[in-house]
Write a structure and sequence with these properties.
Elements: E1 2-7, E2 10-13, E3 18-26, E4 34-39, E5 46-51, E6 59-60, E7 68-73, E8 78-83, E9 92-98, E10 115-116, E11 120-125
Parallel strand pairs: 2-11
Antiparallel strand pairs: 1-3, 3-8, 4-5, 4-9, 5-6, 7-8, 9-10, 9-11
Length: 126
Amino acid sequence: QVQLVESGGGLVQVGGSLRLACAASGQSINQRQIGWFRQASGKEREFVAGIDWGGHLPLYGDSAKGRFTISRDNAKNTVTLQMNSLKVEDTARYYCAAAPALETAIPKDPNDYNYWGHGTQVTVSA
């Protein structure tokens, strides 16, 4: 079992920054791809960013490219999402998720992840 806890969300103005953290406990996430997703009210869950086991091959959704940076520290069992130049449309609940161990690619489909945190709310005001 893997437990994931997100933190770092909050209220920020347009153009501001937030740094989200995902802390894992239970089993190690060292051999799992980790993804960040978000879900705005009334919308489907959307892939934001993902990172491979070693932290060298990040993958970004279109909404995150050029503004967000995902990284991981396997020694600390944590994954972070640095979000810059935030927009009103970034407002959503953000979730981190762990894929099954030894996956060869970073999934973009939330159905391909088997562990989820409860999320952290990000609200960007104009």
